[in-house]
Amino acid sequence: MQIRIGVVGTEAAVAQVLKVMHSFPSLEPVVRIVEHEQEAPDAASDLGGQVEALLLSGPAPQRLLKEKGPVAVPVHHVPLTGAGLYKALFEAQRAGRLGPDAVLSVDSLTQSMATRALRDLGLEGLATAVYDGPPYAAPDKLVAYHRRIAAGRNGVFVFTGVERVAEELGRLNIPNARLQPSDEDIIVTLERALLSTESRKGKESQIVVGMVAVDEFGKLVQRSASEHEIQKLKLDIHRMVLDYVESLDGYLAPVGGEEYLFFTTRGIFERETGGYKTIPLAKDASLSYGITLSIGIGFGATASEAGSNARSALRKSVEAGGNACFIVREDRTLIGPLEMSDPVSSILAPLDPELLRRAEEAGMTGAYLSKLLTYMSRHGKYDYQVHELASMLNITVRSAHRLLLQWADAGLVGIAGLEKMPKGRPRQVYRFSFLADHYL
Question: Residue 299 in contact with residue 309, Cβ under 8 Å?
Fold first, then answer.
């Protein structure tokens, strides 16, 4: 099951968090939008027992929520660090705001953070004032502080971490920029929130079964000059897989046919894959030996269930054309493909069993779906012309036409538009709406 996390904040803050959360397949956001940060505690309280953790847009809403009384679930906020100031300073300098006579006024950060960022960017000569009052100062106090700095001075530029302060300074015609957390700050916070949930703690020691197969090993054997080279390559691959499983604190068992079976725990596997995002073993195999791997990972309440799910996941990886890794969880949801030796443009959220069932009933085989998911994750593409789809699925254009009509009748595919051609009639562009709606 998905781990539900409440995300509470202004529209801009929530949008930034949700953009990053797409790369966390285990998390399901429950969103509450507020006009101002001061309204966040009440919105968070309304979530009640719907979520396993709360993520607020800043430290002030978190403090106000805890002042209301005990909170039943872990509460986190996205911190502002020097990384936000680096970005804001860069954009201000590019816009010509930071001349030699500029005066900077900063809140939401410490003096040391501001000094370090200015020094690293070679701007330590700029006059800088950093608000050193209470860490949870009200917006009107911050506005008053910046107004005092700007009074009677030219070239004052304000960096503030509070959206309401930025809006008020804009009305007062005081140049300012909003400090925002970096994506890396949000990733760290989401990882902490994930680790604090009861679902995550309960699954920390759950058994994970993995299956690894070397793609087209027979062709590698045919290209080898001697039996000695073949045996040496097998040993090298075995050693590589063994080293990876050792990093998982797992147990490895070769099962023949250049296929390997390993066992580890869910907590360790999640940490080593960065939250089900990437498989370092695949890149190592490609760089060291020029080979690609198909990997299937299975979760389950029992070792038997996990093993069956691992075999199902491996089959999807092979059907996708290799160089892929899929995960089948205990609730039969599908995660993947993970990033292998080739980069991906997006991490896809889990596909639920109902969506998979609809696709299968409409004649979309596991092989077609696996290839679609793999191509979409690597290229971020949901719209295709008929000939593009035929090439990707390795079928004829006529067969692609027939499948598209069949999938359109089932509501899986729609027409996204027409593409004009230099000669002839415009070509229809088809969108896999059932996947685009789910992921986008």
Answer: yes
Q: Evaluate if pTM is beyond 0.70.
A: no
Nearest to 387 by CA among 437, 431, 429: 429
Q: Is 23 left (phi over 0), alpha (psi -120 to 50) or beta?
A: alpha
Q: Which helix (H) or strand (E) element contains residue 207?
A: strand 207-214
The two three-digit tokens of residue 125, written as one number: 């000569």
Instruction: Give CA–CA dist 276/268, Å, rounded.
Output: 11
8 A C-beta contact, residue 243 and residue 235: no
pLDDT at 439: 55
How many CB atoms neighbour CB 238 within 10 A? 14
* Chain segment 33-46, per-residue pLDDT in tens: 888 777 888 888 88
Domains of the chain by range and CATH?
Answer: 3-78+183-199 (3.40.50.1860), 82-178 (3.40.640.10), 203-342 (3.30.70.270), 353-440 (1.10.10.10)
Give per-residue pLDDT as tens, 314-344.
999 988 888 889 999 888 888 878 888 766 6
pLDDT of residue 344: 61
Count CB atoms within 10 A of the CB of residue 154: 9
Tokens at residue 111, please?
């003096």
Q: Could you please report the per-residue DSSP string of 182-200?
A: -HHHHHHHHHHHHHHSHHH
Burial 190-203 (b: 16+ CB within 10 A, else e): beebbebbeebeeb
The ranges of the chain with pLDDT < 70 are 1, 135, 225, 257, 342-352, 421-422, 424, 436-440
- What distance in Å separates the CA atoms of residue 179 and residue 186, rounded to the nearest whole number? 14
Q: How many CB atoms lie within 10 A of CB 237?
A: 22
